[in-house]
Amino acid sequence: MELKNAFAIALRKTRLQRALTQEDFGIISSRTYLSTLERGLRNVTLEKASELAGRMGVHPLSLLVQTFLIAEPGTDFDSLFKRIRHEIDADPHVSAAPQDS
Fold it and tell me: Can you give the pTM of this predicted structure?
């Protein structure tokens, strides 16, 4: 499945779970634009995905993780996060470990 179609499913599902209408996004996005995203007709930018997630009260990564779980049906949540943890831990410039304050 194309990522834009998987994102469309994740976006619509999350919006409906939160009992939001497309009109509820009017401050950050037109109903027409949101509709094109939910139908998989357009790609979303990271900036817009972050704004949409914020309006729904979820972390942008929640939308992206859902997107990849939908796009790759054989992938499960735990194995995806194990892979992400491994890749981040392997990067010396990024740390997934909690920071001391």
Answer: 0.82
